[in-house]
Amino acid sequence: MKKILVYLLFVTLPLLSYSQSEPNLILDEKNGFKDLKIGDNYSKWSSDLTLTNTDNGIKYYDFIGSCCKKLFSSDLEKIGLGFKNNILDVIFLTTPTERDYSESWTSSEYRYLKGSFGEVLEEKAYESAPDDNSGDINSIWLGNKIQLILTFEYMGLKDFDGKYIKTSRCKVLISKRPDLKSGF
Q1: Res 21: pLDDT
Q2: CA 3 – CA 87 distance, rounded (Å)
Q3: Is residue 12 part of a domain?
């Protein structure tokens, strides 16, 4: 019996270490996306912003500047920035809608970005799927201060000249980690 317990311990121990037990310090060091850094003052980017809406004290803008048009080698369709009290609080990145001909549920773009983030951040992501039948999948990396959430957004089947093809896009959210202790 002891041999079985010891064997199970040695087999399951590496699996337990797979999860993110320690905050990702690389994510905290990067602190944003390329030149866009969490904590930047609004005045640094004001000439490159177009206001889109305001919600809960955060002003959301489309970034129209010339920097940061690619995420690794993937094109970006949109970059959104959220400022709270004139301080950059959240960064949104969106890839163009992709036609996906593969057999896999997730797109090649999502798999590429997930692998690239995993390589740069030197760890695998925690993966979750919302319980809303959307088909979306989230890959999450957490630092002490910063979080990064890569989302595969399933957009359904679309008719392209009589042929139905699944479509999707990827979204990335980079923000400060919420203070969960203040909610208890």
Answers
A1: 56
A2: 58
A3: no
